[in-house]
Design a protein that fits this description.
Layout lengths: L3 E4 L4 E4 L7 E6 L10 H19 L3 E6 L17 H9 L3 H18 L15 H13 L3 E3 L3 E4 L35 E6 L17 E3 L1 H13 L3 E7 L3 H16 L4 E7 L2 E3 L14 H6 L4 H9 L7 E3 L1 H19 L29 H13 L5 H13 L5 H15 L15 H15 L3 H13 L2 E6 L2 E6 L1
Length: about 475
Amino acid sequence: MEIQLQNSLTRKNAPFTPISPGHVGMYSCGPTVYWFAHIGNMRAFLFSDVLRRTFEYNGLDVTLVMNVTDVGHLVGDVDDGEDKMIVAMLREGKSGYQIAEFYAQAFFSDLAALNIKPAAVYPRATDHIPEQIEMIQSLERKGFTYRTSDGIYFDTAKLPSYGRLSGQKSEDKMAGARVDMAEKLNATDFALWKFSPEDAEREMEWESPWGIGFPGWHIECSAMSKKYLGLPFDIHTGGIDHIPVHHENELAQAMGADGVLEANVWMHNDFMTFDGGKMSKSLGNVYTISNLVEKGFDPVAYRYFVLGSHYRSKLNFTWEAMEGAQNALNKLRNIVREYPGTTPNPSLQKEGRRNDEIPSPFKGEGQGEVFASRFLAAINDDLNTPAALAVVWDLIHDATIDDATKAATLLRFDDVLGLRISDYLGKPVEVPADVAKLVQLREEARAEKNWSESDRLRDAIAAKGFSVKDSPQGTKISLA
């Protein structure tokens, strides 16, 4: 079954065909490590993770590269405002390298908490200054650059295709305010190399053919994606906010320096809002994964919440929605605990096996095969994760499918969903000693027909995150 993806470059859905048969080269814009990534940022990384997992589910090998921007770029992202890394250095009294390392490690911890599979490489901008200088020199040789008092700029008027990704004309784009327009030739021109201010010594600055300075934001991704994936490569992902500036300028740099598209397919996730409004630090509604944990949520519940919306749809975060996601995830976990434990079929791990060749029990037999086909159709339809989750619940509720087949099929589905089902499949709830004592006291109260005490103890158990269900086989304990 072919994979259909929407390409931001063409604004159309089309079958995906990798450049090299059986292999996908994929670049995802990573974090600028001057602060913690917030949950809106993490939506982009969850989206790219599901895309990568979908390719692998279809039997394709994936080389994922995700940059780490550890050299400051300007707050406005269009060459104006304060340098983000310098702002962080002044805020925390640390060096730029200390700032970058601390927040990079926090980012990696968040990825692990969300069960996002690691990239093949996380190149850092500061480790690839020579590659960035080399690409700027290539642009210079081909006549795409000019010099101002502020730095070396890309002349967008020299590239007829500039604006094809965003669909914006040059006059519609905002000019960078930091450079006097008397020096800047076109409003859309952008910095390739910035000169260090003469009256201030920067920590992060390098020698270059044009003088001491630091690279523009956009050049790092073009240079590093070229180094690790070659040009062109298959897929470039990021948030929708990258389209008008960052990704447009990446395209221009690769086209100018090498005469080819940087990537054949560009994919973008939409924004996340909070209670229907913008997320911003000034409004106090920017939350991190650690903030969710502090409020008692499992990070995987946030993953479940994100999967419940299509990546190209706006996603509104509310605490009520998070509670709903946590409850649904706990319900799923409690159900699979009752299933027999199973392990993936080793034959599925054979390199090059496509999903349409998957044997039982993952495809199931009879009616079970219908669910596997529906799931594959959902994820291959431009990552329709809401439909994929619906298939999961339809499978669980189908009384004609035996539990062993359900368990094996869910494990396979989780290769894409990443909900860590294997951690709970066939495994009883681990009940803390204090909760076990409350359960025992409740059973004694029920034996004595002391219903008010039984109800009080049930509430006390629920307050600790567990629920009890009375059955002919005895009391069953599950996560609330």
